[in-house]
Amino acid sequence: MAGKLISTGGRTLRLLKLVFALLCLTILVTNIRTTSGWNEARGVYDDVCYLRQAHLFQRFGVSGLDTNSSRDDDGFFQAKLKEIGYSDWRDPTRWPCHTPMSDHKMVVQYPPGTGFLLALFPGGHQVVPLYLAATLIVCCFALLAIFSAQWIPAVLAAGAFGALALVLMINPTKASYSIAPTMAICALAGFLTARWMAEERDNSLLAMVIGLLLGLSVNLRLANLFLGSGYFLVLGISLLRSRKPSSFAQTTGFGIAFVLGMAPTLIANVINAGSPFATTYGTADVIAPALDLGVLGEYARDIQSVLILLAVSWITWLLRTGENGGRWVALLVAANLAINLLFFLSHPIFTPYYIVPIAMLSLWSVCFAGLILSAKAAAPTPVSLEAASLKALP
To answer: How confident is the model at residue 365 (pLDDT cuts 50, 70, 90)?
Structure first.
């Protein structure tokens, strides 16, 4: 009777995995069909500025880090602005998403990563392949989560979250070209974070890889700098508490890799703003923190609030599991989430994607941490293995 129940449970588990895998693949196909019809000239200023970055990289190589408006001597950006109906396309001092510097040059305000990724694809056909590549990466991690699950509740959670992650690759990800590759990095970094902490291993190499990934994400969006804040906090506390050589190696390794990852942005700041720590953003974007109930209300009515509630619920579950590895992941994610929310909710501008990266990094981390813990629980103990071997004896 027990054997029949185990067999039935195994079939149900496999069936659920297949159902959710097919659901994720269906959403992937739908996303491919949707993005294939996108127009790169949709009238959004950010879009044409990212495309200008890509054009500079394709035209000048690494020297494309220099985004001085005088380098538009082939009229590429002017043509893009004219295409979207921008009236002051002839006047560089009025170009959108460009900032005047002290030496009277106009430069693109964004870090160089998104433009560099777009430059990997042929001009005029850059946005669609970027989104498709990022969506394929997210789909792979969704399938990995589904097929890693060892229990029916774990399959349900992983499958539902994987499907949600793929849906989000259209909305709100399409709002900015920088979000799609950020979502892919968050999936990979979340998976590695779970492997690093939930398995309770001192792994300096893994810490460095995660630091490098999060540093690279800063090249996509400057606000991604905060994605590493919780890691620095937890690693710093761990170092102060233990003072072990392994803790020192992990903390310094993570920090060095993080800085190396964001090196392209630091170099671009030197070229365009005169210092690695000088911003290329204008005064309108460098706003002092302020609590705005209107902004809080916008977030409360947005899908981002649902993602935060999901992350908080998953964090709470991990804290209650009693596993040290799960607790470490939960504490890291909670610290990271709190710091990011403190920044974005006090930023007096609302967008439908500001909180999405930290929410997805948090959710991928706790999702894979939960799967690792459930796999540990499903693994036979030495005692049960011995009992099984005794039963096999004649």
So the answer is: very high
Separation between Cα atoms, residue 24 and residue 130, nearest integer Å: 19
Q: Are 34 and 71 part of one and the same domain? A: no
pLDDT of residue 286 exceeding 80: no
Mean pLDDT of the chain: 90
Averaged pLDDT for residues 51-56 = 97
Q: Which residue, of 100, 118, 136, is where some domain finishes?
A: 118
The number of folded domains in the chain is 2
Return the minimum-mean-pLDDT range out of 105-109, 194-198, 255-259. 194-198
Q: Is residue 392 part of a domain?
A: no
169 and 306 in a common domain: yes
Q: Transcribe 38-100 into DSSP letters.
A: --S-SS-HHHHHHHHHHHHHHHHGGGGG---GGG-TT-HHHHHHHHTT-TTTT-GGG-TTEEE
> Does 273 lie in the same domain as 234?
yes
The secondary structure of 256-278 as a DSSP string is HHHHHHTHHHHHHHHHHHSSTTS
| Own/partner long-range contacts of 269-272 (Cβ < 8 Å, ≥24 apart) | 271/65, 271/66, 272/65, 272/66, 272/67, 272/68, 272/101, 272/105, 272/107, 272/108
Percent of the chain at pLDDT above 90?
73
Could you tell me the residue range of the domain that residue 261 belongs to?
19-38+126-278+287-377
Is residue 172 located within the same domain as residue 307?
Answer: yes
Same domain? For 49 and 136 the reply is: no
pLDDT for position 282: 73
Q: Is 352 helix (H, G, I), strand (E, B) or coil?
A: coil
Q: Which positions ≥6 away from 43 have C-beta within 8 Å? A: 84, 85
Query: What pTM value is reported for the model?
Result: 0.92
